[in-house]
Design goal:
Blueprint lengths: L12 E4 L1 H5 L7 E4 L1 H8 L4 H17 L10 E5 L8 H12 L20 E2 L8 E5 L5 E6 L10 H9 L5 H21 L7 E4 L1
Helix pairs in contact: 2-4, 3-4, 3-6, 5-6
Length: about 200
């Protein structure tokens, strides 16, 4: 799988998953997730996937200062309903990293490690998404504001050309390059931009 070079420059998120340790899937339960994992899950790289990645990274850093986040022990709630807007895309990325699942998720092993009902939609809040530690109850709400990273000025025209029935390979490539250039600006240049990722405890 050949991907844009900047994917490798996106900071990874490292968590510890007690279930993975118990079942021998990862030594010490330590799992490293990279942006390309989120891309594989979503099937594409876009501002929404990038924003979800950055919100998850920021939330876990706030909730677990100086320690490794504990996958499977974090509740994730979204303001949007499951079938609204891009809620499903954002939830998929956050679930990948945190282990949070809806009612159909893993029910546990011998009374431990359950992940079901940790992912919820349509929850009233001022932010876009809320992450909560199950052990301490500490939570943080976040929103991502894409206006902080303006889209390339010619993107609409490039999309129009690339969407034409007989679009040339050059038109398709020009749009894809501009699109990923926008994603790169979001996830690399603005990764720690408080105007892009707004956070309120």
């Amino acid at each position: 799988m050949k991907t844009p070079a900047f994917f490798d420059a996106v900071p990874a998120i490292v968590v510890v998953d007690p279930l993975a340790e118990a079942l021998g899937a990862a030594e010490g339960g330590v799992i490293e997730y990279r942006y390309v994992d989120a891309v594989k899950l979503a099937g594409h790289s876009c501002p929404t996937v990038a924003g979800a990645w950055l919100m998850t990274r920021a939330a876990l850093a706030r909730l677990y200062p100086g320690e490794m986040p504990r996958r499977g022990q974090i509740r994730v709630e979204l303001r949007q309903a499951l079938d609204e807007g891009v809620a499903g895309v954002i939830a998929g990325v956050t679930a990948l990293v945190t282990g949070a699942a809806n009612g159909g998720g893993f029910k546990g092993l011998a009374g431990r490690f359950a992940r079901n009902d940790l992912l919820r939609f349509g929850v009233p809040m001022s932010g876009e998404i809320r992450f909560t530690r199950l052990d301490s109850g500490r939570s943080v709400e976040l929103s991502h504001r894409l206006r902080a990273v303006p889209r390339p000025p010619a993107l609409s025209e490039l999309l129009r050309d690339a969407s034409a029935p007989q679009a040339s390979a050059a038109a398709l490539r020009a749009f894809a390059d501009a699109w990923q250039g926008w994603v790169q600006a979001i996830v690399i240049e603005h990764a720690d931009d408080p105007l892009l990722i707004e956070m309120a405890a």
